Amino acid sequence: MIIKESSEQASELVAHWIGKAIEQNPSAVLGLATGKTPLRVYEKLVQRHEAGELNFKKVKSFNLDEYVGIGPEHPNSYAHYMRSHLFAKTNFKEENTFIPDGLTQDIVKECRSYEKKIAKEGPIDLQLLGIGRDGHIGFNEPGSSLRSRTRLKTLTKETREDNAVHFSESSRIPIHVMTMGLGTIMEAKQIILMAFGKDKAQAVSLCVEGPVSAFVPASILQFHNNVKIVIDKEASSLLKNREYYEWVYAQKPDWQMP
Ligand code: GLP
């Protein structure tokens, strides 16, 4: 648990870790997330690439999820998001970036083939996650099987409302999505979950301090052996053990520091 003063500081740290993973392994496989939360991290990675410090030539990426019914050219598709915030601004090779095809005519086949691609190129070295207010990761809404694989999901009313800001007409937000499952996510070697702002405080506290439950999909991370939860002060406000987490971080031996 790493609680930073601001989302800016938290993003700096996460970008540093991603950079380090690529430096250590230029062919690293990243699991990437969308939404507001990782935006600053992507900006920082782009800056480091422009400064000649980061090379994405051999890096591979798998995105968590995609809306069903909209294609990669649609401004609200996650394929478009990734291109405009990261891929087109760096030297990622298009053939190394993977995301489910929102326009597929066969969803079951598309999800199976996505799993196969992850199995072939993976395992994912570093999986980046945000969290929904209802505790979802990827688009694994409450009730998702804790062992689920990439599949079709139906968004909750709350998630559709939260994502409405990105769509010009709220009625146009897709109802269905394809998402990596919780079982898929759990196979990543390392996971970094980020959460910023008071709206995420409850989801963070249930994820970290609540019981593991399909009702709070992010709580499955309690079973992973290499997870960092990087949050800002506001998102930490409901944590019962907040002082302890801050104390642990302050006492970290040098060799454990970023
Ligand atoms: C979206 C995405 C998630 C994301 C979450 C939070 O619905 N599918 O991957 O982490 O909800 O989004 P934001 O970062 O915009 O709060």
The biggest sheet, with number of strands, parallel, antiparallel or mixed sense and barrel status, is: 7 strands, parallel
SS field, number of helical segments? 8
Q: Spans with pLDDT under 50 lasting ≥5 residues? A: none
Q: Total strand count, please?
A: 10
Which assembly state applies to the chains in this document?
single chain
Question: What would you call the structural class?
Answer: alpha/beta
Gap from first CA to last CA: 13 Å
Order of helices and strands: EHEHEEHEHEEHEHEHEH
Shape: globular
Q: How big is the Rg?
A: 17 Å
Helix content: 25-40%
Output the keywords:
single chain, 258 residues, seven-stranded parallel beta sheet, three-stranded antiparallel beta sheet, 10 strands, globular, binds 2-amino-2-deoxy-6-O-phosphono-alpha-D-glucopyranose
How are the secondary structure elements laid out?
Blueprint: E1 2-4, H1 7-24, E2 29-32, H2 39-50, E3 60-63, E4 65-67, H3 78-85, E5 97-98, H4 107-121, E6 126-129, E7 151-154, H5 157-163, E8 176-179, H6 182-185, E9 190-195, H7 201-209, E10 227-232, H8 242-250
Parallel strand pairs: 1-10, 2-3, 2-6, 3-5, 6-9, 9-10
Antiparallel strand pairs: 4-8, 7-8
Helix pairs in contact: 1-2
Bound molecules: 2-amino-2-deoxy-6-O-phosphono-alpha-D-glucopyranose (GLP).
Overall description:
The chain has 258 residues and is of the alpha/beta class. It has helices spanning 7-24, 39-50, 78-85, 107-121, 157-163, 182-185, 201-209, 242-250, and strands at 2-4, 29-32, 60-63, 65-67, 97-98, 126-129, 151-154, 176-179, 190-195, 227-232. Helix 1 packs across helix 2 (39-50). The longest helix is centred in the first third of the chain and has 18 residues, at 7-24. It is globular. The model has no long low-confidence stretch (mean pLDDT 96). The protein binds 2-amino-2-deoxy-6-O-phosphono-alpha-D-glucopyranose. 2-amino-2-deoxy-6-O-phosphono-alpha-D-glucopyranose (GLP) binds at residues 33-37, 64-65, 130-132, 138-139, 159, 163.
